[in-house]
User: Fold this.
Amino acid sequence: MSKTDLIIIGGGAAGLMAGCAAGELGLKTLVLERKAKPGRKLLMCGNSRCNLTTNISDDRMVQMFGNPVGPFLEPALKAFTPSMLQRWFAANGLKTVVKAGNKVYPHTERAADVLALFTDLLRDQNISLACSSVVQALEKTKNGFRVTADNFVVESSYVLIATGGISYPKTGSVGDGQEWAKMLGHTVSPYRPGLAGFEVDPQVMKGRIGKIYEKVLVDVLVNGTSVGQTRGVYEIEKWGVGGTALTDASRIVARKNLKDYRLLIDFQNGKTEEIRPIKTRGIKEAMVTVGGVALGEINFQTLESKKCRGLYFAGEVLDVDGPTGGYNLQAAFSTARLAVASIGKRCGKKGFQPLEKESKKSAPPARGSKRNYRRKR
Ligand SMILES: Cc1cc2nc3c(=O)[nH]c(=O)nc-3n(C[C@H](O)[C@H](O)[C@H](O)COP(=O)(O)OP(=O)(O)OC[C@H]3O[C@@H](n4cnc5c(N)ncnc54)[C@H](O)[C@@H]3O)c2cc1C
Assistant:
């Protein structure tokens, strides 16, 4: 049986970036994706415009992730900062733009262009991406790993699990990576919906369905005291209440495991409203999963498991989640690159080529190809 350096399981945001990073280092790599096409969730990001990151410093980003996620992500975010992410995309033919709220998008504002960039890069770097390859089992062998998919078995020295969380399962992320992690001795923190709306008493919605309040301040109250604050949009939906201020509040509720809480909405015009949600919307409809492979069991400097040598994790399979605004894709991309850099080091590879410094001029041409992604009109 042939053996490769690295098998990446999952062709989502983290797995695709990891594949490209492995190509940059010259690692013999195979990316396995269960769906017929990769990046199903990536295509949905930012209403298909793909909010890639937030244009803030890495230190500020660490702070915004909060405890315990921020400190865990710090080495990954410092190794591949929001600024580096933008330069990486530009260097590969897709310039980015900064929009309201510091949100960064591809200049074409098409998630499809982000996916095309990844698959083009994988092809140009001879990194194999095998779609319709549902990995069924992952075993540790004497010198590496054996990965069993539906129709084949492959072996590698290293494995990177990038199978995502458990929200939006139709996109392919159903929790397989967490199950293999458990079998290999890891703890999986309980799943909770992150970045979801709230179900509320119909009286709250009465006469207001469809109403959008653009700039509100939300305090999550426990016994009348604020335990967290968010800002953004408040929307009255058919099923309850949502919008960025509310979905970010749901992440606070999940992270703090709150059961009895209220939401105080300040419309910033002298008016306020207090809501007692019935519950957060279900995890399948949440944008991210709170919970996953326990952070204490992963070396945050390398993203290698402390329980199973040679096994690495990246993206939402970990107990990692962030607020709305590009934080979750940044986390997926940064952890992917740190994990691959760590594997590369073990394989005797030099690090990544430095990225060109930020330039006000147009993006440099794509490396080694004529890639240039433009909105099709
Ligand atoms: C509607 C929506 C909008 C969002 N918008 C944004 C946004 O604009 N900005 C932002 O930062 N974040 C956004 N997010 C969150 C972001 O999409 C995720 O955090 C990110 O995709 C996580 O990347 P990942 O690679 O870890 O997981 P995923 O993208 O879920 O990828 C995991 C991949 O692994 C594959 N896989 C799973 N099991 C197996 C198996 N057994 N064998 C082979 N392959 C397998 C899956 O098919 C999938 O392709 C959004 C999420 C949703 C649902």
Q: What stands out?
A: Residues 129 and 279 are 40 Å apart (CA to CA). The chain has two domains: 3-192+286-346, 197-281. The chain has a mean pLDDT of 94.
